[in-house]
Amino acid sequence: MEKLIITPKEEKAVTMTIRIDKTLQDKYSELSTTTNRSRNELIGMALQYALDHMELQP
């Protein structure tokens, strides 16, 4: 009989607290309703897009 092997769960998501302007929150809330995606998901997508497309100036 083969053994059931259980490995530690890998945490990929973390909780992070930020402060944003109320109007920005309102825009993400509206976008969330329109797209049927959570604000969290939309903000994560926006942050990843920013990292992928940013250019640092010396």
Helix content: 40-55%
Number of helices in the DSSP assignment = 2
On the 0-100 scale, what is the average pLDDT? 94
Strand segment count: 0
Shape: extended
> What series of H and E elements makes up the topology?
HH
Beta-sheet strand percentage?
Answer: under 5%
Main sheet characteristics:
none
- Gyration radius from CA atoms, angstroms: 18 Å
InterPro entries: Ribbon_hlx_hlx
Protein name: Ribbon-helix-helix domain-containing protein
Structure, explained:
The chain has 58 residues and is mainly alpha-helical. Helices cover 50% and strands 0% of the residues.
Keywords:
single chain; Ribbon-helix-helix domain-containing protein; Ribbon_hlx_hlx; mainly alpha; 58 residues; 50% helix; extended
Describe how the helices and strands are arranged:
Elements: H1 22-35, H2 39-53
InterPro entries: Ribbon_hlx_hlx
Protein name: Ribbon-helix-helix domain-containing protein
In short:
This is Ribbon-helix-helix domain-containing protein. The chain is mainly alpha-helical and 58 residues long. Helix content is 50%, strand content 0%.
